[in-house]
Write a structure and sequence with these properties.
single chain, 4-stranded mixed sheet, 1 helix
Length: 71
C-alpha cells in the first residue's frame, strides 16, 4: 500500500468486514493507520467476526467483539 486514500472526509463508521484476514500483520498496521485518519473522534471501525485487532497498537477501544471505537 504505497498510495494514500483520496480525500473523502471523515467518517462516523467504517465497515471493513472479512478483509484483513488475508493480510499480514504489517499490512494490517498500514491499513489501520490510514483508516484511523479517516474516522471521527468517537467513530467506529467494524470488522468481521473472524478478525481481530489483537497485537496491533491502535489505541482504539473494543466495544464488543469486532467493533472498535476511536478515542
Amino acid at each position: 500500500m504505497t498510495q494514500d486514500l483520496p480525500e473523502l472526509g471523515l467518517f462516523d463508521v467504517i465497515f471493513l468486514r472479512n478483509v484483513m484476514i488475508y493480510f499480514s500483520q504489517d499490512v494490517k498496521r498500514q491499513v489501520l493507520k490510514h483508516l484511523m485518519k479517516r474516522l471521527r473522534p468517537d467513530g467506529y471501525l467494524v470488522i468481521g467476526h473472524s478478525e481481530t485487532l489483537n497485537g496491533l497498537e491502535t489505541g482504539m477501544r473494543a466495544v464488543v467483539p469486532s467493533i472498535y471505537q476511536m478515542p
